[in-house]
Amino acid sequence: MDYINKMHLKIPALSLNESFARGVVGAFCVSINPTLEEINDLKTAVSEAVTNCVVHGYQNKSGDVQIDATLFCDRLEIEICDFGVGIENTEQAMQPFFTTKPDEERSGMGFTVMQAFMDEVQLFSKPQQGTKIKMTKYFGKKGADVDA
Amino acid sequence: MDIKFSTGRHTLTIYLCGELDEYVADNARQKIDDAICQPGITTVVFDLSNLSFMDSTGIGVLIGRYKKLKARGVPVCVKNVSEPADKIFKMAGLYTIMPKVK
Asked: What are phi and psi of A86, to 5 degrees?
């Protein structure tokens, strides 16, 4: 199936950019008429992924976050990556309540939220090279409403 | 994010307005902690009617405040939970520690 649109965004890893990133990705999907709930799900998942880049990938030091998204008539495919410290044990990182920063009141729910709010979530990471999260969100039956 | 407070006889109501994410988390923690340390408060209620966005960082902020208040024997409730916040609350099981009141 052909895509409708593509986007690429490179932003500094700042927590300030979380709202920017989720806003951009939400706006990017508007052309296929998602529901408000679907947009909120997507924005929440993007926020989690960008937070991970800022707080964990770069440990609040400088770096870039890269977002690549492709919009189809029925779904969004999105990749969010950093070039930071990476994750030794990705399986452990994805466990609910697991956190490497318990003293900072981190809930350890980031990946759990992404998995709950998106349809597919895959995590790729190499220590000292970075982390990429690949997610897909299907938009109800809205795809059928898009003009050919 | 804008945080407002109103104090009843024993109840402190905290209005979280806007988006609760990593960018505003430290500031929100500080403001809420300053307010909840007042003496004489027996219940804290979070009014989430204008909370338009919240992610797992927000879960951490709320659980952190809940733990502080629980240590003092002060119960925490939520009311007027907006749709985006409700979804996160249900997913994370937050209603079991912060029940919904009217």
From this structure: 75, 175
Q: Does A37 touch chain B (CB under 8 A)?
A: yes
Is the CB of B21 less than 8 angstroms away from the CB of A48? no
Read off the tokens for A143: 């795809």
CB–CB contacts below 8 A, A to B: 70
**Residue A145 above 80 pLDDT?**
no
pTM score of the predicted model: 0.93
Closest residue in A to B55 (Cα) is A44
CATH topology of domain A5-140: Heat Shock Protein 90 (3.30.565)
Q: Domain ranges in chain A?
A: 5-140
| CB nearest to A106's CB, from B60, B88, B91 | B60
Residue B12 lies in a domain: yes
Question: Does A107 lie at the interface with B, CB-CB under 8 angstroms?
Answer: yes
User: Which residue type is seen at A20?
Assistant: F
Q: Is the pLDDT of residue A95 over 50?
A: yes
pLDDT of residue B17: 98
Residue A18 has pLDDT above 90, yes or no: yes
Q: Give bridge partners of residue A82 from the DSSP assignment.
A: A65, A131
Torsion, Cα of B18, B19, B24, B28 (10° steps): 60
Instruction: Give the up-direction half-sphere exposure of residue A10: CA atoms within 13 A in the CB hemisphere.
Output: 3
- Give yes or no: A48 in active site: yes
Q: Rounded distance, CA A95 to CA A101, Å?
A: 14
Residue A141 confidence (pLDDT)? 56
